[in-house]
Every structure is written in C-alpha cells, then in structure tokens.
Amino acid sequence: MRIAVAGTGYVGLVTGVCLASKEHEVTCVDIDEKKINLMSQGISPIYEPGLSELMRDSKDNITFTTDYKAAYSGADVIFIGVGTPEKKDGSANLSYVYKVAEQIAESLEKDCVIVIKSTVPIGTNDKIEQFIKAKLKRHVNVYIASNPEFLAQGSAVRDTLHASRIIIGVEEPQAAEILQDVYKDFDSPKMVTNRRSAEMIKYASNDFLALKISYVNEIANLCELVGADIEDVTMGMGYDSRIGTKFLNAGIGYGGSCFPKDTKALSWLATFNDNELKTIRAAIDVNESQKFKLVKKAKKYYDDFSGLTVAILGLTFKPGTDDLREAPSLVNIPILLEDGANIKAWDPVGVENYKKIYPTEIEYCETISQAITGADLCFIFTEWPEVKNMDVRDFETFMKRPIVLDGRNCFKLEQFRNVHIIYDSIGRTRVDYLYI
Ligand SMILES: NC(=O)c1ccc[n+]([C@@H]2O[C@H](COP(=O)([O-])OP(=O)(O)OC[C@H]3O[C@@H](n4cnc5c(N)ncnc54)[C@H](O)[C@@H]3O)[C@@H](O)[C@H]2O)c1
User: Cα of 83 to ligand 1 centre, how many Å?
Assistant: First the structure.
C-alpha cells in the first residue's frame, strides 16, 4: 500500500519505518530539512533502540521528503503524526495537525484514508473531517480514522511492531477495512471502535498510568516518614493481580512529551465540559512537587549549593531516549546553577540535546567516574543501566563527599552497608554510614 506519514518525530518516524519493514511503500514528510537530509542518508535524527538498524533494513521501501504534495497526492493512506504540544492554559495545541490537514486537502488527487495518530482531544477527528472536506481541491472521497499511538520512548520500535493493541476508530466500515489491511502483518490485537472512543482510549490510558505513578510517589513519600520501604510495599501490592507490579516504581515524577501534557489536556477538556477530573488534577499536582524532591533532600546536607561540585547522572526524562522534554533534570539543574553550583553531568545519549540549552554552563563528562570525581553531592535523575550496574564503591573512591541522592532507586540498600557513603533514595530508609 502507498502510505505517507506526516511528521518524523518519535511517533511518525518509528511508524513509517515499521510500516516500511512490512513491505508498504512509505514516504515520510517533515518540514525540517535538516532532519530530512539526515534520514535520506540513512541516519536517524532521534535515538531509539533498533531504529537505525530497521531504517537500514527497510531502506528500499521508504523515502523522506519535505515535498508534501508529492507525498500526499497519490497516497492510499496518510498518517498524521505531528506534535500536539501543551498550550499555556493546558489545552492541546492543534495548529500542527490543522496545518497538515490543510496541506493534505490541497494535495489529494485520489480517495484516501487519513489517519490521526497524534494524540488529540475527543472530537478532533470529527472537526478535521469537516475541515478537510471543506478545503478539498478535487472530488475525492476521504475517510478520517483515529489510530492513537501507545509506544513508549526507549522501546518505540518493539512497541510498534508488537503493540499491546491497535485501536482503530472509524465512522465508516471502508476505513476500518483499509486499516486492518495496513496492519495485517502486525501481530497485535486489533480493536475497532468509533472515533471519539478511540481518542478517549488514548487519553484515559496515559492519564491512568500517570495517576499510578503519582499514587505510588505519594505512598513512597509517606513510607519515608513512617519507616516503611516502598520497594517492599510495591512488591507486596503487586502480588494482587488486580494491582500488578508494572508502573509502580517510585521516583521523582514522570516527564516526557506525553504524560505531562496529556494529563493537562484531559483535565482542561473536562473543565471545559464543566466536569472537573479531580483524580487527574491530583496526579498533576503530586507530580509537580515530586520533581523537586531531590533538591529538597539536598538541603538536609547543604544550606546552599554555592561553590559545590555537583555530579548529575542522567539528563533525559527516562533511559533509552535522548528526549529531554519535561525531564526532572531540567527543573533541578537551573536551581543548582542559580545557587552557584559547579555541575558535572553524564548521560549516554542526552548530552547533545542538553548542550542546545546549556552549551557552556555545565561540564559534560564522558564517563560516570569523571562526573563524580571531586563531587560534594551526586544526583541520579535517570535510571540508565550504566548507573544501575556501576560499582557503588566508586562513589566513595571518586567523590569528595560521597552523598548520593537517587531519584530512581537504582540500587539496593544492602549495596551501601559496608561503604562510607550517604545514600538517600525515594521511599526508603536513608543509609548513612555516620549512623551505622
Ligand atoms: N513521543 C511519544 O512517546 C508519543 C507516544 C504516543 C503518542 N504520541 C503523540 O504523537 C504525536 C507526535 O509526538 P512526537 O513525540 O513524535 O512529536 P515530535 O515533536 O517528536 O515530532 C513532530 C514532528 O512533526 C514535524 N512537523 C511539524 N509540522 C509538520 C508538517 N506540517 N508536516 C510534516 N511534519 C511536520 C516536526 O518537524 C517534528 O519532526 C503527539 O501528539 C504525541 O502526543 C507521542
């Protein structure tokens, strides 16, 4: 099938490459010429495990262009995967989606299924249908389908090739048939529903996961106060199959391009419909304060950070991605810099993106040991495997004062029993050799 994909971000590029790997003829469109040039040379502009390899293996079935007319005019199916970032009031900014819709309407020369993969508020598919039909330049049939994306960054290729589910939201059976055909070689369960339900499935799923994280973080905060251990608590909870163990890791809050904006967008939509979502509002509030948890902990050890050398392990919002959107490091590092700390940071893939924000203010280090050398304090913001697998004795060997604040519970408390390190994590007893 001839498929065009609008937008080559984490969703669009991964979707395009995975569809090409299933023998579809795919054209990926973006407005960013630099990205298109890179991809045309076989280079992925984003870091995602397995993506470069699959791009290489599928290169005969995929092309990249800024020429949207050429891509859209003869396509059987067009996927829209552009961003829907948060506006100041929390609602979703749909201007990129509408721009693509306009470009599609002016380009189409044959019947086409237009699939909205971007996360959009309930009712958007209906509005886009009216918008495109009003702007069509030729007499062609268009069907609009909602096909929300559930991939997680860091495992996006696997999540697309073996998705937990493929949701097909349609109003006409023809559109469902064509999408079933697009996905015929994907081994995931497929569910057909109407467009508004499909749009809601996406928000309700993401917001439920955000709720789970904020809930466990609040329980973790209480564990610290009452002497319980959050790791044991969540393990004990997880034996109940109604609860399960997944997504119950305490930490310094969720980040990334989805949970923060999708919780706010649904909350905004509910308020707009005069129906406040109290649980989601609470999840947002808890997450906002949780991001500051490590800086607050650090104040137990230092009144201010002026002149201190602070090591940062992990800059991205989670491991497996170079994405910094809403990363907790971006909330904490400005506070440390403002206070006069000297920051030495390590991250395996996030540094190039960080340099765009802080080109000179931070010393970027090649290795974890370089970053912690001479440090008065170490913050762990991302649970990279390199951090989880390091020898904790390195903190004692390399740091000036081995105080480790772990926002992701990367280590077991036992690992700190026979070392001279203060280890302060989330929802667990602080290990402090001074008191042992
Ligand atoms: N990132 C995720 O993990 C994830 C997961 C599920 C769903 N989503 C949703 O998918 C959508 C896309 O997210 P993303 O993270 O891939 O976005 P992104 O910001 O990484 O990429 C968007 C891309 O669209 C391009 N673009 C903008 N206008 C364009 C136009 N007119 N034509 C062609 N390209 C254009 C941009 O240049 C950019 O490359 C969002 O709605 C998001 O909520 C994201």
Answer: 3
What is each CA distance from 273 to 48, 84, 89, 184, 305, in whole angstroms? 38, 20, 15, 38, 46
pLDDT category of residue 433 using cuts at 50, 70 and 90: confident
pLDDT in tens, 149-171: 999 999 999 999 999 999 999 99
Determine which one of 18, 28, 258, 410 is catalytic: 258
Is a pLDDT exceeding 80 seen at residue 92?
yes
**CB hemisphere CA count around 21 (13 angstroms):** 20
Distance 22 CA to ligand 1 centre (A): 22
Ligand 1 center to residue 119 CA distance, Å? 9
| pLDDT in the model for residue 417 | 87
Q: Is the dihedral of CA 31, 34, 37, 41 positive or negative?
A: negative
Instruction: Answer whether 426's CB lies under 8 Å from 230's CB.
Output: yes
Of residues 19, 210, 201, the one with CA closest to residue 125:
201
pLDDT band at 57 (very low <50, low <70, confident <90, very high): very high
For residues 301 and 319, give the distance between their C-alpha atoms in angstroms, rounded to a whole number: 28
Which residues contact ligand 1 via a Cβ below 6 A? 6-12, 29-32, 35, 81-84, 96, 99-100, 118-119, 149, 151, 153, 257-258
